[in-house]
């Protein structure tokens, strides 16, 4: 991905061998395959496997020049070729950080220390969207779910109700506005930031800009906006938005649940980086997850991936991974600009267990399509009710076993008969109680949910996505697909506002609704 043409995947003999091996592999309930990485156990026993598939996967990676591409990623080379930049987020969590990174990290921690020691800002309004939002929400919810002395509201959406709710109930004189935008031009962030600034002024805050912080790759834009230099923290253009959690974007996390959480997450992620760089292919957790994902999506045809965290605190892990995977792998053109002729990135969705069991697990077990599932659970809880945790663990293991093993018609019939059911009804009802089984899954077990293990978990998924991008021959670091809609929205906003004539280039439906919706949403 350094500019060299990787060649079409399906034209490679190694792909043909990989596909053949995958179609002849199976899920074996007697197989146990657990990889430990950075303190996390990844159980891939529920995936299609065979010695031939393992060998073919290694050969495919070699054909895609995986080792060189991994080195390029970890050394800050140009892996984002369509934007001619690195994707060097691993540098942000390296134990021996580069001087510029270390200096900015120190600035951040000093800012947080000063705020904490002075007990400043009981309220924080974090304004950002996408990668500037989800990771911070995830960390704050994971480690501040029981409450902290600071109150945090997140504002992402351009819907005015979002900023209205984000400001509601807060004392403007004791509120810090954190604006996170790599470009400092993101429409949602800039509009919501302007409303927050107006809110501070309306409350009589004498120096409102001193209650605003910016995290951006364009500090000059933040300066021009009015934010003092001491309140501007730097991103770098080689940090993609969906990887910006590792930067000063996590200021809100530190203010809400302590700087130790940031440091712990960086340590865990760095440990996973080391594992990814050094572990042999057969024992490399991100690589093995990636290969299984390729089999499930491109060969077996599963259209989606379910994320099932059996931990209430990880509800925001689902949208975080959803953005990471779908924005990275939602591509249908390879690095040569040629359409990819096999399915790439799956749709990612989910919900924490056990809520998920009462929502969509019926579809996972007995639906005609189904989906691979990543079960995620902590072996040890941090609350005082061990009985609750044993029930949670039992549910996680049971759902995975049911997906893996299934239940045959004979077993269902026997169960019906044992309940005293008449023979004819038992024979009929047993058909409805059959579980097909053989549906792929991973089980990821954290010793406990800590900043370290959460950091390692997120890096595990990051590297998995990178490996899949290498194999598919696509760029997982750009997101051109969202740009066109942004461009159209800019013109449409002017048309709806009446400052620009309705374009004749619109389709009939869009033209109808522009005319219909012009003007009614006037400011009050």
Architecture overview:
This protein is α/β, with parallel strands linked by helices. It has 19 helices and eleven strands. A six-stranded mixed beta sheet has the order 1-2-11-10-8-9, sandwiched between helices. Strands 4-3-5-6-7 form a five-stranded parallel beta sheet, with helices on both faces. The protein starts with 12 loop residues before the first helix and ends in a 7-residue tail after the last helix.
List the helices and strands and how they pair.
Layout: H1 13-23, E1 34-37, E2 40-43, H2 51-63, H3 66-74, H4 99-117, E3 123-127, H5 134-144, E4 151-155, H6 160-167, E5 175-180, H7 187-202, E6 212-216, H8 219-225, E7 232-234, H9 251-257, H10 259-278, H11 285-299, E8 304-310, H12 317-329, E9 347-350, H13 361-366, E10 373-380, H14 386-405, H15 409-418, H16 423-429, E11 441-448, H17 451-472, H18 483-497, H19 508-517
Parallel strand pairs: 3-4, 3-5, 5-6, 6-7, 8-9, 8-10, 10-11
Antiparallel strand pairs: 1-2, 2-11
How many individual β-strands?
11
The domain count comes to 3
Q: State the order of secondary-structure elements, H for helix, E for strand.
A: HEEHHHEHEHEHEHEHHHEHEHEHHHEHHH
- Estimate the helix proportion, in percent: 40-55%
- Hey, roughly how much beta strand do the residues contain? 5-15%
Q: Per CATH, which architecture of the largest domain?
A: 3-Layer(aba) Sandwich
What is the residue-mean pLDDT, rounded to a whole number? 96
Spatial ordering of strands, largest sheet: 1-2-11-10-8-9
Shape descriptor reads globular
Radius of gyration: 25 Å
**CATH domain topology of the largest domain:** Rossmann fold
Helix run count: 19
The CATH homologous superfamily of the largest domain is called: Glucose-6-phosphate isomerase like protein, domain 1
* Major β-sheet annotation: 6 strands, mixed
């Amino acid at each position: 991905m350094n500019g060299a043409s990787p060649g079409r995947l399906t034209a490679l003999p190694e792909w043909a061998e990989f596909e053949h091996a995958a179609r002849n592999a199976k899920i074996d309930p007697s197989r146990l395959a657990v990889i430990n990485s950075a303190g996390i156990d990844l159980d891939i026993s529920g995936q299609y496997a065979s010695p031939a598939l393992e060998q073919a996967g290694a050969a495919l990676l070699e054909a895609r020049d995986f080792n060189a591409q991994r080195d390029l990623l970890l050394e800050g080379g140009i892996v984002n070729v369509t934007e001619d930049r690195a994707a060097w987020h691993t540098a942000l969590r390296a134990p021996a950080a580069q001087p510029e990174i270390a200096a900015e990290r120190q600035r951040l921690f000093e800012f947080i220390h000063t705020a904490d020691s002075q007990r400043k800002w009981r309220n924080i309004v974090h304004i950002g969207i996408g990668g500037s939002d989800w990771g911070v929400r995830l960390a704050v919810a994971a480690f501040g779910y029981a409450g902290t002395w600071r109150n945090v509201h997140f504002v992402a959406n351009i819907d005015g109700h979002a900023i209205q709710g984000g400001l509601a109930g807060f004392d403007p004189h004791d509120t810090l506005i954190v604006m996170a935008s790599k470009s400092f031009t993101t429409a949602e962030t800039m509009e919501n930031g302007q409303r927050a600034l107006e809110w501070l002024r309306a409350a009589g805050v004498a120096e409102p800009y001193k209650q605003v912080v910016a995290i951006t790759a364009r500090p000059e834009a933040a300066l021009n906006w009015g934010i003092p230099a001491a309140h501007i923290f730097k991103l770098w253009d080689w940090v993609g938005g969906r990887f910006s959690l590792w930067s000063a974007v996590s200021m809100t996390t530190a203010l809400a649940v302590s700087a130790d959480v940031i440091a712990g997450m960086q340590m865990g992620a760095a440990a996973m980086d080391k594992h990814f760089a050094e572990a042999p292919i057969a024992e490399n957790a991100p690589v093995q997850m990636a290969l299984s994902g390729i089999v499930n999506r491109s060969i077996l045809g599963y259209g989606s991936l379910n994320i099932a965290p059996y931990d209430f605190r990880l509800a925001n892990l689902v949208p975080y991974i959803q953005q990471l995977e779908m924005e990275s792998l939602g591509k249908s053109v390879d690095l040569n600009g040629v359409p990819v002729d096999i399915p790439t990135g799956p749709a990612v969705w989910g919900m924490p267990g056990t809520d998920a069991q009462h929502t969509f697990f019926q579809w996972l077990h007995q639906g005609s399509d189904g989906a691979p599932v990543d079960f995620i659970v902590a072996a040890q809880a941090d609350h005082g009710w061990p009985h609750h945790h044993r029930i949670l663990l039992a549910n996680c293991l049971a759902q995975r076993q049911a997906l893996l093993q299934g239940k045959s018609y004979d077993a269902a019939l026997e169960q019906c008969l044992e309940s005293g059911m008449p023979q004819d009804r038992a024979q009929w009802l047993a058909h409805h109680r059959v579980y097909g089984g053989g549906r792929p899954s991973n089980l990821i077990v954290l010793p406990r949910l800590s900043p370290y293990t959460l950091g390692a978990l997120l890096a595990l998924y990051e590297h998995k996505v990178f490996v899949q991008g290498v194999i598919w021959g696509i760029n997982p670091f750009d997101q051109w697909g969202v740009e066109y809609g942004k461009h159209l929205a800019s013109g449409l906003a002017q048309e709806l506002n009446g400052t620009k004539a309705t374009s004749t280039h619109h389709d009939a439906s869009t033209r109808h609704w522009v005319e219909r919706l012009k003007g009614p949403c006037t400011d009050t």
